[in-house]
Amino acid sequence: MSFTSLKEITTKCNEEKKSFYEIVLELDSKQSNFTHEKEIKKMNSMWTAMKNAADSYDPKLFSSSKLTGGDGGKFEEYIKKNNSICGSFIGQVISCALQMAESNACMKRIVASPTAGSCGVLPAVLIPLYRNTIFSEEKIIEGLFVAAGIGQVIANRSSISGAEGGCQAEIGAASSMAAGTLVYLHNGTPEQICAASGFALQNLLGLVCDPVAGLVEIPCVKRNVIGAVNACSCADMALASITPKIPADEVIDAMKSVGNKIDSSLKETGRGGMASTPTAKNIYSKLSKIN
To answer: Residues 6 or more apart from 246 whose CB is under 8 A from it?
Structure first.
């Protein structure tokens, strides 16, 4: 039986005097009948795929629709000029989020974390930390187990599907996972991990899934950026000992309730929201004639 609440994980952490990572690893190992070493090796392969996706980004590559590509390269050049409003680290986070999401649109190999449409959020906060040698690979892999535990709870209590819960279930879940992971990496407590996860998710409640022309490109790529930056700010709030008034598990439940009320046109159908704008309809019409 997998975890159905973040409180359950936190309680086990405190009772057994173990870290969030250790509790999730033990459960995964028990469910899969794999040794801890094999579980870690499997997670390492995911991390390697994330690194490879980041390292192989091609700013000259565009999606088949020609709607996506090059922006990650533009932003990388922009931050090199040292005049980014957000600063160096957040600039790198934005750049990586764009590049990873663009790679997905260009059919390159990515890691769904938790989905392909939100694949840029988690690596966007981890790749810069690794490239700047702030954390070792071993520590980052531990963090990925933390992300997996949070994602598992969200999937169990609510959803990680845009078609079911809107983009809040994809970018929102990814941002929640990334925020908790950042807190873990910075030696936050299990309670702070949960606080950051809840903050990140509550900030994105109600986010609809409205892909222009039904493609995971507009506005999906740019939403990976907001998910990643949101994760950073929420992790800092939690590490500053700002405590949430609503527990993270209740925020997840609220997301499910909101998702159930979102109209079907705003759940990955490409019929509402951004997809219903005049420009979006024109894009859809042109692409339909080409295909």
So the answer is: 198, 202, 254
- Asked if residue 16 lies in contact with residue 25, where contact means CB atoms within 8 angstroms, the answer is no
Q: What is the pLDDT of residues 208-229, one digit of tens each?
A: 999 999 999 999 999 999 999 9
pLDDT of 4 > 90? The answer is yes
First to last CA, the chain: 46
Examine the pLDDT at 182 and tell me if it is beyond 80: yes
Residue-by-residue DSSP string for 277-290: SHHHHHHHHHHHHH
Between the CA of residue 55 and those of 60, 110, 225, what are the distances in Å?
Answer: 14, 11, 18
Range 172-184 average pLDDT: 98
Please give the full DSSP string across 32-54, using - where no structure is assigned. HT--HHHHHHHHHHHHHHHHHHH
Q: Please, which residues have CB within 8 angstroms of residue 84's CB and are 6 or more apart in sequence?
A: 78, 90, 91
Condensed to tens digits (0 to 9), the pLDDT of residues 249-271 reads: 999 999 999 999 999 999 999 99
Q: Which amino acid is at 23?
A: I
**Which tokens go with 70?**
């090059």
- What are the extents of the domains in the chain? 6-290
